[in-house]
Design a protein that fits this description.
heterodimer; A: mainly alpha; 0% strand; B: mainly alpha; globular
């Protein structure tokens, strides 16, 4: 592969990484439920883009399949399932309550991203590939930010999105470390995502029917009839 | 040497002459999006001409600051124009007199005097607008500094003429994540600094909701004309910095020939026109944020710039 093309691919992958990180921040900070879902779809598409670029650069067919599977399960099936199962939540409740206010939350998130970079930098120094360096740090930061979303949001649906964003982050790191992951492993994870979405979606719907809301932060005490 | 001085002066002339035109085009485009015909794109020139021929009334309670502020606000963008690449790709006579931070300070000086003048007359709306502008200003400051750090970190220099060359040599640099994110952060900064939607509504007429406009309510006649002109020049200069330094140096003159330099004028204006179209789309599709949500907008810009810095600092 000629050098300028490789350099373009590296930069394209880096751009996908930068925007992926930005989407992770947006999932933390978006105030509206639908906006949160949209950012999650954007993040999944960027993951697919990065997988495609690395697939072209390393010449691996597996990564092309990963990209297709990601688009189908995360960018198409997940929003569709969520809209089917928790339609009322998505459309009637526009604003999500947070434990922290949004500027503080963003600063904590920025600190987490810096932490991810700091953790990865000695590991990345060992490796030689530019892809690993980018994807490992961005993926780990995505993982942290997803976990932070789960911690800071009080509602069930954004918490689910945080969980899936964690999974996105883990995948983002994985596509660079193991371009030739066995296909069966990818397929398993790919099926996990819609099933998780479906289960949590249905559960959320039941909670909504019983309690009248899905503010998980309020569900702290058990109640006996 | 004489050519470099001449081109520097041509740059100033271009900014002074075409800044109201950019504002007129922006207003016209916005009206077209709203299915109206809108005023002519030359309306800002007519407004300035009309105001220059009107009597000026200055409050007896005001001090020299009120009288000096329009001139300071008018001269500040001109000084910045001397430092930045408007038409040429190579450094001109005064290019090394100040870097991007210096240019930012000069622009801030103009804003500072306008804010002082707003407080000076003790009109109740003036100080309100001034304090709100300061609030937006100090939230925007860290973003400005970090974008500046990122850009100078990548380019190894703080002189705008040197910075602009880095993004396209080689062309793959254009897609570098730090570049894209720094552009995004600076774009949000322009929206906040120039009081555009979603931070402030530039066409609003309700004094209580104003952020930027209420500072100039007391001016009349020549003072109002100069303030208006200065405002459009500030936007023009910000756009030139954004488009020529941060985005690309495409369309700028690469040789010393005067023909090339003059040819660069329509190319730069075309770039600005494209940017204005984007600005109009944003202004027509977003609503104004509540005052205390501006912090959220600017903290989003801040995080964007921090991500740009981390990606560039980790060598990507």
């Amino acid at each position: 592969m000629s050098d300028p093309v490789a350099s373009y691919l590296m930069h394209l992958n880096a751009m996908a990484g930068g925007l992926f990180l930005l989407a992770a921040f947006a999932i933390v900070a978006t105030r509206q439920m639908l906006g949160c879902l949209r950012w999650f779809v954007v993040q999944a598409l960027l993951l697919a883009a990065s997988a495609t670029v690395i697939g072209i650069a390393v010449g691996s067919l597996h990564l092309a399949i990963v990209a297709v599977v990601t688009v189908v399960t995360k960018a198409m099936a997940t929003p569709w399932l969520l809209r089917r199962t928790v339609r009322r939540e998505l459309y009637s409740r526009r604003e999500i309550s947070q434990v922290l206010n949004i500027p503080t939350s963003l600063l904590v998130a920025a600190a987490l991203a810096l932490l991810a970079y700091a953790i990865v930098s000695p590991v990345a120094a060992l490796e030689t590939g530019a892809f690993v360096e980018i994807n490992l740090s961005v993926g780990l930061a995505g993982l942290f930010l997803g976990a932070y979303t789960v911690a800071v949001r009080r509602e069930a649906v954004p918490q689910l999105l945080g969980l899936l964003a964690m999974e996105n982050g883990a995948f983002f790191a994985a596509v660079s470390i193991a371009p030739d992951l066995p296909f069966i492993a990818e397929l398993t994870v790919a099926f996990d995502v819609p099933v998780t979405t479906l289960v949590i979606g249905l559960l959320t719907r039941r909670i909504h029917e019983r309690v009248g809301g899905t503010s998980v932060g309020l569900l702290s005490a058990l109640r006996e009839k | 040497m004489e050519e470099r001085i001449l081109y520097n002066l041509i740059q100033v002339a271009v900014v002074v002459a075409f800044a109201p035109l950019a504002e007129g085009v922006l207003n016209r485009l916005k009206e077209i999006v709203q299915s109206k015909r809108g005023p002519s794109i030359f309306q800002p020139y007519r407004d300035i001409w009309k105001l220059l021929h009107k009597d000026e009334i200055v409050s007896e309670e005001s001090t020299w600051i009120f009288r000096a502020a329009p001139y300071v606000a008018f001269v500040a963008p001109i000084f910045v124009t001397l430092l930045i690449p408007v038409l040429t790709r190579y450094p001109l006579f005064l290019a090394f007199m100040g870097d991007m931070l210096g240019g930012g300070f000069v622009l801030a000086l103009g804003g500072f005097f306008v804010a002082l003048a707003a407080v000076d007359t003790a009109n109740p709306y003036g100080p309100m607008g001034a304090s709100r502008t300061r609030m937006v200003g100090f939230l925007a400051e860290p973003v400005f500094i970090i974008v500046f750090f990122t850009v100078s970190f990548v380019a190894g220099s703080t002189i705008p003429y040197i910075v602009q060359a880095v993004w396209v040599s080689p062309l793959a640099n254009f897609f570098a994540p730090s570049h894209v994110l720094a552009m995004l952060a600076f774009f949000m900064l322009i929206l906040a600094e120039d009081a555009r939607l979603p931070v402030d509504s530039p066409s609003g007429h309700f004094e209580l909701a104003m952020i930027n406009k209420s500072k100039g309510l007391e001016y009349s006649g020549r003072g109002a004309a100069i303030m208006k002109w200065a405002g459009s020049m500030k936007l023009f200069v910000l756009l030139v910095i954004f488009l020529n330094v941060l985005v690309t140096p495409w369309g700028l003159a690469g040789t010393m020939a005067i023909g090339d330099v003059l040819l660069a004028i329509p190319l730069v204006l075309f770039k600005i026109f494209l940017f204005l179209v984007v600005l109009v789309i944003i202004e027509s599709s977003l609503s104004k944020l509540r005052l205390f949500r501006i912090t959220e907008f600017l903290s989003a810009a801040f995080v964007t710039s921090v991500v740009a810095l981390t990606t560039s600092a980790s060598g990507l």
